[in-house]
Amino acid sequence: MKKNINDSLIEIIRGDITEMATDAIVNAANERLAHGGGVAGAIVRKGGKIIQQESDNWVAQHGRVATGSAAITRGGDLKARYVIHAVGPVMGSGDEDEKLKSATLSALKLAKEYGLSSLAFPAISTGIFGYPVERCARVMLLTVADYLDNETCLERIVFCLFDEHSLQIFTNEIKRL
Ligand code: AR6
Question: Strand, helix or coil at 11?
Answer without folding.
Answer: strand
